[in-house]
Every structure is written in structure tokens, then in C-alpha cells.
Amino acid sequence: MKKLSIFLFFPFLTFSQQLITETMLFDGIEREYMVYVPQIYNSTEVPVPVLFSFHGGSGYAEDFIYTNDMRPIADTANFIAIYPQGAIDPEGGTTSWIHKAPTDHDDIFFIEAIIDTLSLEYTIDQSRIYACGYSEGAILSYELGCRLNNKIAAFAAVSGSMLEDYYRNDIYGWEPCSPVHPTGMMLIPGTVDQNPHSTYEGLSYYDMPLYMSVDGITTFWSNYNNTDLNPIVTNVEDSAPNDGSTVERKRWLNGDNCTAIEELKVIGGDHDWPGSFGNMDINASAEIWNFVSKYNTDGLINCNTTSSPESSTIYKNLISTIDLLGRTTNTHKGFQIEIYNDGSVEKRYIIE
Prior knowledge:
Helix content: 10-25%
Number of helices: 7
């Protein structure tokens, strides 16, 4: 399929940083994506990572940027945050990723085209391109991990499942998921999420398996990465006891090239983005960056000198504290996000 790309640039919002909306003609459809460039970015210095964030079905990038807001983290960690916009589904009439069959539209190539364009416009680290998504955007993140794996170093999925091979092969006509390098993967599912494409138990229609269960997903990726068979399980502090949910952290470690799989199981969690709505014991955006940023396309960065993802950061100093709206704060109460000099972030709830 021939693809013609035309790029126009429009300032969207002006701080000391840049938030730009770019337009691309792709597969005969005008497509948009938002680019956030932190103030500390310098095109003459070392290449910087890129993180894609995908909104849910019927959603919009201009809204999702406030849900999973990666901008305060990018300002410190120095990466470029990309928020693509899903196109209108010709059958459903709403914004959608990987348009429903029988159309032949495939957003995998749209994201690949964005990467190619970013490579011309910015000094990006081609070995550190990451993806994360919510709901239907999480499905796209899995697909990028499967079918654009040569470009995606690590990815995360929140409140969304991975397609079963029956769905991939018989409905879409794709091949089975075939990653090409050890890949760090994080998922953040809710145990009471009843959205059809994100239930914890997965979904089948009669004898047709459609969406994988969480156990199926972690088994697939831990097997592919050759991690330890049994995960390390710990409980996250229940810092927000009134949110109706708790979090269990499960980690499959010691995979090829030091890769790991991590599940943040939100027990009692619904179709949410933790830290923004739903569970408030964790901040999904912070957890995602802390996880994916440890990887490049070769696996865990500095794999030969560290034994696990947890040990890749040794020294760090607090440099900024912000609230949930991204504003610098000096108060010592309520929800706060602490940003460290290594680009990592931690969420705290402080009661005076």
C-alpha cells in the first residue's frame, strides 16, 4: 500500500517547553499526533528516548495527555513524549486504533511513519523507543510489541488485553505475535474490569478465543524472554485506603539480556488509569516510565554490570516535587510526585 506523508506544524500550547500538534497524510487520511519536547532537550547533545502514549477507544490525544501526563517526567528525564490521535473508525464512527475488520487500515505502520519522521526532526535514541496505552490503546501497545518489535524497546499496557492468535489470524489476517528481541513488558490490569477487551480472565465468544487473560499474557512474555518461572510477589503499600482497591506487584526476573515482566495487579480495580482515577496507591505513568526506561532494544541497559532491573539505579537525589496536576509544590500533605535526578519518580500520600 502506498503511503504519502505531508507534514505541517502547529503550535498547540506554549510553556518554556513545546507542545506541538503535527499533521500527517497517511493512507489517504489526515492524521494527527502531539509532540511534547522538554525544555532540557538539546538537539546537539546525546540522543533522547521517545515514549508513545495511546488513548482509549473513542478517546482523544488532547484529553489523554492530562490522564497519563508524561510531561513533568519528561521535563526531568529528558525524553520526547508522543500522543498520537486515533482516526475515525469507518464502521463505528468513533476514534479507534487498528480499525475493525474488514478494513485494511493498520496503525502499526502509522506509528512506524511517526518514528521515521521524528528521526528526521529530532535527535532521538533509536534503541530507546517505548510505548504505553490505555484500554484499546493498550491493545495497540501489545501489537507494537509483537509486530514493530524491532523498533520498540519496552512497552506497558493499562486496562487492556492482548489479542488471541485466533483474533489475530482469522479476523485480522496477521501472523502470530513474533517479537525479535528480549522485551521488557509491564501490564496494569484491574481484577473487576468488565470491559470486554480488558477482563482479567480474558474473553472468548463460543469457541472463538478473542482476548487473552492476564495469566496468558504474562505466561507468553515470560516464556518468550526466558524469565524465572515463578514471579516475586510483593504488596504495594495501601496509601489510599479509601479508593476501594489494593495493588500486588508481580515480577518475573532474570530473562534473556536481563529482561523482566512486571504485573501491577489492581485488586478491586476497574477500567482505570491508576494515579489519575481509580486506584491511587500507584501512579501508572510514573511506574511505566520507571520500568521501560531501564531498557533498550538489546535488553536491560548495562545488563552486563547489573543482575536485575531493580539494581540498574544506584544513586539518586530528589530534585523536584509536583502535585497530581504537574505543579511544583512545597507543601507537605496530600498526593505528591517526587522526581529524582536519574529520571525516576515516586508517588507519596502525606498526612500532616
